[in-house]
């Protein structure tokens, strides 16, 4: 039965509703979506950076997920090498689950704390300098590494700070190179 055609219902005649009857747009134009982000307020379009809360949540979540995943993989590898000759299947599965879970939790917590510290330093340095550039990220990596290992002594803190700064510098460099040479 076609839309908008009268239909007999006993003694009454009724018309079926067609929600598309007033749309006289070709179907091709109906699904052309914008490629740029759309903002409700003009002030939102001027801000090109996540807020401090979004930064904190994003970095901490990504850090925990990466740490937990890599820790679980390491725990699985360790558990597979710890099998003994007389172990039953239940015992082997239990060993894999326990070792993967323990190592995944430990690595995830460490990586989450490091990411939380990095996000805090990064947001604070951006607010203090009122610019967002590579130097902020590298300084945040330096500070995060140094503070994370500060309890191990000044030498360990300096080495960890240098490693943090180098790691963040390489990551930012790779990110800029990918943006430049790989169109998205």
TrEMBL record:
<keyword id="KW-0472">Membrane</keyword>
<dbReference type="Pfam" id="PF02466">
    <property type="entry name" value="Tim17"/>
</dbReference>
<keyword id="KW-0812">Transmembrane</keyword>
<dbReference type="GO" id="GO:0008320">
    <property type="term" value="F:protein transmembrane transporter activity"/>
</dbReference>
<dbReference type="InterPro" id="IPR045238">
    <property type="entry name" value="Tim23-like"/>
</dbReference>
<protein>
    <submittedName>
        <fullName>Uncharacterized protein</fullName>
    </submittedName>
</protein>
<dbReference type="GO" id="GO:0030150">
    <property type="term" value="P:protein import into mitochondrial matrix"/>
</dbReference>
<dbReference type="GO" id="GO:0005744">
    <property type="term" value="C:TIM23 mitochondrial import inner membrane translocase complex"/>
</dbReference>
<keyword id="KW-1133">Transmembrane helix</keyword>
